[in-house]
Specification:
The protein is mostly beta strands. Strands 1-2-7-5-4-8 form a 6-stranded antiparallel sheet, with no helix packed on it. It has a 3-stranded antiparallel sheet with strand order 6-3-9, with no helix packed on it. The chain is built from no helices and 9 strands. It has a domain of 102 residues: Immunoglobulin-like (Sandwich). The two termini are 53 Å apart. Keywords: Signal. InterPro entries: Spore_coat_component, Spore_coat_U/FanG. It comes from Pontixanthobacter aquaemixtae. This is Fimbrial major subunit CsuA/B family protein. It holds the Pfam family SCPU.
Length: 164
């Protein structure tokens, strides 16, 4: 009689009944496959974007920046998108005050603030070929802050999404 375990193949000797003789021990080699999997993964940290509006009524824009720091597995294609926030009207991002007043703003992929950062093709597509760690700048702008904007603290929350 031979016994085979689930983890490795090992032949065990069993004495034959009635003959008085024993079988010689036998060993056999068997291959044990070993495998592992590293799954694509990205970790993300985003800093807050804080606008400083000092000259309300000057009809000028107020700019701010934030950063997104990523660490992804090597040889990973990924896209970084930013949604339109909790108070958006279509693709127009808006912050809201405690009194319910709204203040329009937007975020951009470039310092000139000409390439809006959003969803789909408005995201940043990237391939991590080597050390898969990097920082992306996010450039914000509140256009034409004027005396028509009510005084107060305004807030919104954007969701940064990594697709890979």
């Amino acid at each position: 009689m031979y016994i085979r375990t689930a983890f490795c193949a090992l032949v065990l000797p069993v004495a034959a009944f009635g003959s008085g003789s024993a079988f010689a021990q036998q060993a056999s080699d068997i291959a044990m496959p070993v495998s592992g999997e590293v799954r694509s993964r990205c970790d993300i940290v985003a800093t807050p974007m804080r606008f400083q509006i000092a000259n309300v009524g000057a009809n000028s824009s107020s700019d701010a920046t934030a950063t997104i720091h990523l660490r992804c597995t090597q040889r990973t294609f990924f896209t970084v998108t930013i949604d339109y926030g909790q108070n958006a009207n279509g693709t127009q991002r808006r912050m809201i005050s405690g009194d319910g007043d709204l203040l329009a703003y937007d975020v951009y992929r470039n310092a000139a603030r000409t390439r809006p950062w959003g969803l789909g093709n408005r995201g940043v597509r990237f391939y991590a070929s080597g050390a898969a760690e990097g920082t992306f700048n996010v450039y914000g702008r509140i256009p034409n802050v004027s005396t028509f904007n009510a005084a107060g603290s305004y807030r919104d929350t954007l969701t940064v999404q990594i697709e890979f």
